[in-house]
Design a protein that fits this description.
Immunoglobulin-like, five-stranded mixed β-sheet, single chain, 5% helix, mainly beta, 5 domains
Length: 625
């Protein structure tokens, strides 16, 4: 037996009448409306005549009747209604298949009549007239084996062996039981034809395969779960021949339902594919590190979200910014794009410093210099949050102070710098032949530039050629420089890239009193910072504004502020690795074609010592003599 007791097993023809079945056992509707008159509907002709030229693919019903407001319906629906009630002629176009016609009018009981088999261009004619109130229904009996089979006459349920009252005429009979072959029949009820006997034939269960594109989808037959789709995309089971309601469901997918008809013969294979039950939310958020929450759950690092269709609460927040909260609607298979900029809380900074020509930097929590100036200043609309104020001046010890800008408030800060020098540097800045000023930093007994060299001339004022073309660069055997990808904006941040011929030029690349560091100078620097394995992190600037994530080990505790300026090769590949690597020349040769250099990497806290082709372009840092 089938494992779903409530299932209905029937033949393909029964699909035409499912909408008429109800789940209660009563005698026909006509026997319950004693206060209404009945319609006497009689079939008078059935011809195959092409009388409706626009509907040659369909059948037609013509009814002659004096009953006002007569309405005709069908279990398969009406294709077209061409009735002329004013002259008592009703014409409807219907499908050329067996069906039940319903005749009704105000003050009259419904009357149902089966059409029997129909063909295209066939016309069935009826008359409909009121019956007298004294006319009686006919008592009939349906005897069915097995007795507990489900029996429906004109869509009304009855019991086997029970006497029921039916009007005379053609009646449709449907009989079914699980494990038996269903019967669909039309009978003529009359005074002489009052008993009808039926016996259902037993049938065997048959194998059925349900296929789907989603592994793990749950298979539900007539409301009962019958397993899941396996990794081969199939669920096999056994069912009795008949009609079933099949549903496939899976989390994250749109459930699909359909009626399947299992036959005694045939492959009985049914495919139901599911589609993703998602829409997309594409977010562009400024600032990029703001916290995004969907229904109060954080979606860290995600900016293209897959969500089930529905309504959500979107919240975006960041300290010192005005938070955003809004309701969004996600539609199936659609992308909602939102470009959101949070409004920063701002305050003001009133700053004074002695000496008055001191250079001042305002550095945010990521290590980025957001403003710089000399002497006193009044800054308005500064984003609220923590900052570092750094002041440097010739002949004075550098000063740093931690401050917090508060919403709609003015912070007043004064710094009095102490005279003196730190370590090996006699000055906090150095200026090159072009007038570029660089910060300096003492590390051990060495004084280093804290920025990459950006000069376009040698120490004696001679020009260093700017060579832009890749072919020209590869042919060089003399000094030259280039901006990364020939963009001046890169020079403002990362300085220039020089070949080793410029480093080794006797006219001097660094300012007076400074030199390009030797391989030994670099080794001393590494030792002063704890050795090559950890010195890289102490040299690199912090954050990921310039360095690619993760910028491993970066603390910049040396204040060297190493930046990833990339490099230029001496072949057609040209520029590479901006943001990933910083590479600096030494003045020491390794061989005829190579010289020693140092490399820092975004994914490593160490310093790498290597040799580079003299024709390549790398950054330069100068060290004090």
């Amino acid at each position: 037996m089938k494992s779903t007791p409530s299932a209905v097993s029937c033949t393909v023809a029964l699909l035409l009448f499912f909408s008429l079945l109800i789940a209660e056992s009563i005698t026909p509707q006509l026997s319950h409306a004693q206060d209404l008159r009945r319609l006497d509907v009689e079939r008078i002709a059935s011809n195959r005549v092409a009388v409706f030229q626009d509907y040659t693919r369909y059948a037609a019903v013509i009814v002659e009747s004096s009953v006002p407001n007569l309405r005709i319906n069908s279990t398969l629906g009406i294709v077209a209604d061409l009735s002329e009630p004013a002259i008592g002629v009703y014409r409807v176009i219907i499908e050329p298949r067996p069906q039940i016609l319903t005749f009704e009018a105000p003050g009259f009981m419904q009357t149902r009549i089966g059409t029997g088999p129909l063909q295209a261009r066939q016309v069935v004619e009826f008359t409909a007239k009121p019956q007298s109130r004294s006319e009686n229904l006919i008592s009939v009996i349906f005897n069915v084996t097995p007795a507990d089979a489900r029996i429906a006459v004109d869509g009304e349920l009855i019991r086997s062996g029970e006497t029921v009252a039916l009007p005379a005429g053609t009646r449709e009979v449907q009989i079914e039981r699980e494990g038996y072959r269903a019967i669909s029949d039309f009978v003529e009820v009359s005074e002489r034809n009052i008993q009808f006997n039926y016996r259902l034939d037993e049938i065997d269960i048959v194998p059925v395969r349900i296929r789907s594109n989603v592994e793990g989808a749950r298979v539900v037959i007539d409301g009962t779960e019958r397993g899941e789709i396996d990794r081969s995309g199939t669920r096999g089971l056994f069912l009795y021949p008949g009609s079933y309601a099949l549903q496939l469901t899976q989390t994250g997918f749109v459930s699909q339902s359909r009626t399947i008809v299992v036959s005694e013969e045939g492959d009985n294979e049914f495919t139901v594919n599911l589609t993703r039950n998602i829409g997309e939310l594409a977010l562009t958020v400024t600032p990029a590190d703001a916290t995004v929450l969907i229904n109060r759950e954080e979606v860290a690092g995600q900016r293209l979200l897959e969500l089930a269709p529905g309504r959500y609460r979107l919240e975006i927040e960041k300290e010192h910014y005005e938070p955003l909260s809004e309701t969004i609607d996600i539609a199936l298979n659609e992308r909602l794009s939102r470009d959101i900029t949070l409004q920063a809380h701002t305050g003001s900074l009133q700053f004074n410093v002695t000496p008055g020509d001191a250079r001042v930097e305002l550095i945010d929590a990521t290590g980025r210099t957001v403003n710089e100036w000399n002497g006193l200043s009044l800054l308005r609309n500064v984003k609220a949050g923590p900052y570092t104020l750094r002041a440097t001046a010739e002949g004075h010890l550098p000063e740093e102070q931690q401050i917090v800008i508060v919403l709609d408030e003015t912070l007043r800060v004064s710094i009095l710098m102490e005279e003196g020098f730190i370590g090996a540097c006699r000055s906090t800045t150095i200026t090159d032949i072009d007038g570029n000023t660089y910060r300096t930093v003492s590390i051990g007994d060495q004084c280093w530039m804290a920025e990459n060299l950006n000069t376009s001339r040698y120490r004696d004022g001679s020009a260093i050629p700017n060579v832009r073309g890749n072919t020209d660069w590869t042919r060089l055997n003399s000094g030259a420089w280039a901006y990364y990808r020939n963009r001046r904006s890169n020079g403002r941040t990362y300085g220039k890239l020089y070949n080793w011929h410029a480093v080794n030029d006797r006219r001097g690349l660094c300012p007076e009193g400074w030199r390009v560091p030797s391989d030994r100078d670099w080794t001393i620097l590494e030792d002063n910072l704890g050795g090559r394995n950890i010195a890289g992190g102490k040299l690199k600037s912090t954050g990921t504004q310039h360095w690619r994530s993760p910028n491993t080990g970066a603390t910049n505790e040396s204040a060297f502020s190493a930046l990833p300026g990339g490099w230029r090769s001496d072949n057609i590949r040209s520029f590479s690795n901006l943001g990933s690597n910083g590479l600096w020349w030494s003045s020491s040769e390794d061989s005829t074609d190579y010289a020693w250099l140092r490399v820092l990497d975004h994914g490593d806290a160490s310093v790498s010592r290597g040799n580079g082709n003299k024709g390549y372009g790398f950054s330069v840092r100068c060290v004090g003599d």
